[in-house]
Structure formats: C-alpha cells, structure tokens
Design brief:
Blueprint (H helix, E strand, L loop, with lengths): L5 H8 L17 H16 L9 H13 L7 E4 L9 E6 L7 E7 L18 E3 L2 E3 L7 H16 L8 E6 L10 H8 L1 H4 L1 E6 L4 E5 L2 E11 L1 E10 L3 E2 L8 H13 L9 H13 L3 H9 L6 H7 L3 H7 L2 E9 L5 E2 L2 E10 L5 H12 L5 E4 L13 H14 L5 E6 L5 H6 L4 E3 L4 E3 L11 E3 H18 L4
Parallel strand pairs: 3-6, 3-7, 7-17, 8-18, 9-16
Antiparallel strand pairs: 1-2, 2-6, 4-5, 5-19, 8-9, 10-14, 10-15, 11-13, 12-14
Helix pairs in contact: 2-4, 4-15, 8-9, 9-10, 13-15
Bound molecules: zinc ion.
The site of zinc ion has 6 residues, from loops.
Length: 472
C-alpha cells in the first residue's frame, strides 16, 4: 500500500481543523451483500499470505467463490509462475457488451508479516472489537480484495452487463521482498489476460479523516520511480602505520559531502500542480499562498524553497537522492583499498535515469568516483488526472459522501501501478475506505479498518466497478 500522503500533510503540518463536510449516513450494501463481504474479509484475513506462505490458497478461495457464483470456468484463470507455485494469481473476466479494451481492477493478495506476540489480537484471526475489524490485511488490502470479489458476485446476481469487459486480477507479491510480482508476471507472460485501456488499483487513494471527520478523497495518479546507485572509490591500500593522501574512504566521504548539498531542480507535474492548487484552497494560512504560487506555471521558486523545508513537500517537489548504506576498508590496521556507498533516488514522473545520473556525476565532479546503477528502474509515468476520469471518480465519491473534495495525488513510494503504467496502461488508485490521517497501521501492529468504513467501501466498490464498466 502507498501511504496516504496529503492528509497527513494538511492535518499534521498545517494544523488544520478539518473541512466542514458533514455526511448523512452514507449508503451501505444490502444486508446479505454486507454479510457476504464481511465473511470474505474474514476468510481472506485468516489465510496467511505473507511471503513465506504465498498467495495461492487465497487465490483458490476467490476462484471458488467466483465459480460458485456462476462465472464461467473459462473466464476465471488461476496462474502461478512455474518456479513459484505458491505465488498464485487469479484473474476473472466479467464479459461486456462490446469488444474492445477492458478496464482492469487490481488487488494484491499478499500481506506483510505479523508476529502474534507484537499484536493485541491474533493477526491472522479477524477480530471485531469496538467498531473495528482487526487483523493483518484489514486495510492493506484484503478489505479491497473482499470488496472487489463481493461486488462482482452482486453484479452477476443482478444480471448487470457492462459496456466493456471488466477484468479483476488478484495478484501475488506486491509487498517489499517479493520475488514473484503478480502483475509483472502476468504482463510478461499472459498480457492478453489483463490487457486494458486503464487500470484501477484499490491499493491506494481513498478518504482521509481528521478526528473522525472527512478531509478529502484522494485519487492516486502517479508515483515516484525507485532508483538505486552504488558509488565506489579505490586506493592502493597498505599498512595502517603509513597513511598517505590517497584514501578510498576520505575520497568517498568528500563525494558524499557534495551530494549532500545537491538539490534537484523543482519539478511540477499535472498531478502535483493540482494537489498544491487544491490544498491551497483547503488551507487558508501562509503556506496556502506558497502552494498557489508553486502551482503556477512556471512555479514560484522562492515559494518552492519555503515549502521544501518540510521533507514531505520537498519529496513532492523534486527528484531526491540520499545516501542509505556505506562500507569500506577490510581491516582495522590496514589502509582501505575500497569504499562504497548506496545512493537511493526517487525520481519524479517525467524525469529520466540519464538525467539523474548526469546530475549526480555533475555534483560529484570527480572521475575517481565510480557510479553504477544497481538495477534497471521500472519507470512509472504519470497517469494524467484528466477531467473525464476525475469527474467520473468524483461523481462516484459524491454519490456516497456528498461535497467531499476529490484531489489527485502523487505517492512518494511505489505500488503495482508502476508495472501497469510502465506497460502503457494508465492506472489510478481509488479506494472507498476512509482512514484517519493520523493513523495508518498498514504494515504495522494492530492493523484495523472501521467496520462501517469497510461496509461503505464495499458499496463504493460496487458502484465503482459498475461505473467503470461503462465507457461513458
Ligand atoms: Zn498494499
């Protein structure tokens, strides 16, 4: 899951009280569907899908639900890579009236590990307590998986026929440390199964609350690209009692000092410009003027520098690179022959690896420091927050929560969107769950989702799947 960014900015940094958006009780699904979704959430949470266990059992459970609900076996496909049989994915195609490109929904099945001794409740048992469902995956993202599969079954029962095919892929290995990412595997070996005009990923976006009241609803349209470099210096070495001027560790340290001073140029995207523009309306204070000024074209650089004092705003305004690991030398009493540092970069959508590399080389200004890229990046271009897509999702959000501001956002982390965006499928993060801006327990202890928030998200997901199945 991509941590929700903007709400904590607004709520935490600007000290906002929340917007005065009061909701009548938002709609929830019919009682039988509500119960079915809760039962599915329970089953999925209680199937351990951490890396050690894999996602195959959860994929088979979903496959079975779909077949029982009447989906044709030829439209429900279980697939695991041959060399990773526990990293199963299940893909269902809900057939539409017209041929042509489908809409793809994504939900990952894997969860981050959780140790029972760290938790108040068993992480792999769904526990209802004081209006909350506790359990690993309740917010990231078995809630979304349950909402998706229940919505498909409800639509099928209602004999809904979409204009275009709706594909839902429940996939393996999104979380860090995975070796068999589902969307990457499917795009590479089974593209026809998930090829689509656009993708909706329930792993990000969604509503942000402040003290239980709604702030705004995020639509994730972009994320930064992950890039890692190694810096390396060498020197002749020798006896520790005979130091000379050529020392790999000092040489590397000098380079790192220059990198510490490096600031990449301010760069706005359609998304971040819209984010700042909207936040400026939400915040009536001094930062509001800076946000409005930075959203101008060209951006006001003095305003950008003031905003950049905050690390989160800084990350939204430019590519960043930072030293994260260092090593050097081989013995306490020997001169070093080698020193290395790892530089972790997060590149803005639209920036390029070649540009990041040449900026780093320019700052290092030293041919004696070798710079290598650790792995080819999965470039994640922005999916534009176009008026049609923002209007469509906005109208859906307002059908549930009238008047809530709907804001496009860029994540500083990454999700499976990078796979689909890199493959040329515009991808948007849309989730119907509201969570408190000050509380994000995804990946952490006592992960939970509000029971009412879950029920509302199931209804929202049903409306979302239905609406996205229409081409207008
Ligand atoms: Zn997630």
């Amino acid at each position: 899951m991509i941590p929700r960014s903007l709400a904590s900015l607004v709520a935490g940094i600007l000290g906002l009280t929340c917007l005065e958006v009061a909701f009548a009780a938002p709609p929830v699904p019919p009682a039988a569907d509500q119960q079915l979704a809760r039962d599915m959430l329970k089953t999925l949470v209680e199937i351990n899908t951490t890396h050690a266990h894999g996602s195959t059992a959860a994929a088979h459970a979903i496959e079975q639900w779909l077949l029982t609900a009447g989906f044709a076996p030829s439209d429900v496909t279980f697939l695991a890579p041959q060399d990773h049989p526990t990293k199963g994915n299940v893909i269902v195609r809900y057939r539409g009236k017209h041929p042509g490109k489908a809409v793809l929904f994504l939900g990952h099945l894997d969860v981050v590990d959780a140790r029972a001794e760290d938790w108040t409740f068993d992480p792999f048992t769904l526990t209802a307590r004081d209006g909350w469902f506790y359990g690993r995956g309740t917010i990231d993202m078995k809630d979304g998986d349950a909402a998706l599969v229940e919505s498909l079954i409800r639509l099928k029962r209602e004999h809904f026929v979409p204009d275009r095919d709706i594909i839902v892929a429940f996939t393996a290995d999104e979380e860090a440390g995975g070796d068999s990412n589902g969307p990457a595997f499917l795009l590479k070996d089974h593209r026809e199964l998930i090829d689509a005009a656009l993708a909706i990923n329930l792993d990000g976006g969604g509503g942000d609350l402040k003290n239980g009241a709604p702030l705004y609803f995020e639509v994730g349209t972009s994320e930064k690209t992950y890039l890692t470099y190694t810096l390396e210096t060498t020197s002749p070495g020798g006896h520790g009692s005979l130091p000379g001027p050529d020392n790999a560790i000092y040489h590397l340290a000098d380079g790192l000092e220059r990198l510490q001073a490096l600031k990449f140029p301010v760069m706005l995207t359609a998304t971040t410009r819209a984010s700042f523009d909207e936040l400026a309306v939400v915040d009536p204070g001094e930062s509001s003027a800076d946000m409005r000024a930075v959203a101008q074209s060209p951006p006001d650089l003095a305003a950008a520098e003031r905003l950049s004092r905050n690390v989160k705003f800084n990350a939204l305004l430019r590519t960043t690179c930072v030293a994260t690991l260092i090593s050097g030398g081989h013995a306490e009493n020997a001169l070093p022959q080698r020193a290395k540092a790892t530089i972790q970069c997060r590149m803005m959508p639209g920036d390029t690896e070649a540009n990041v590399r040449s900026t780093l080389m320019g700052a290092l200004d030293d041919p004696g420091i070798k710079l290598t890229l650790d792995a080819p990046p999965i470039v994640s271009p922005e999916s534009l927050p176009t008026p049609p897509i923002m209007r469509k999702i906005g109208a859906l959000a307002h059908s549930m929560w009238p008047g809530v501001p709907v804001i496009p956002t860029m994540a500083t982390g990454f999700s499976d969107d990078r796979q689909t965006r890199n493959a040329g499928i515009p991808s948007y993060d849309v989730s119907g769950v509201w969570i408190d801006a000050d509380e994000n327990r995804a990946h952490g202890r006592d992960e939970r989702v509000g029971i009412e928030a879950f029920d509302e998200s199931v209804e929202f997901t049903y409306r979302l799947v239905k609406a996205m199945g229409k081409t207008q």
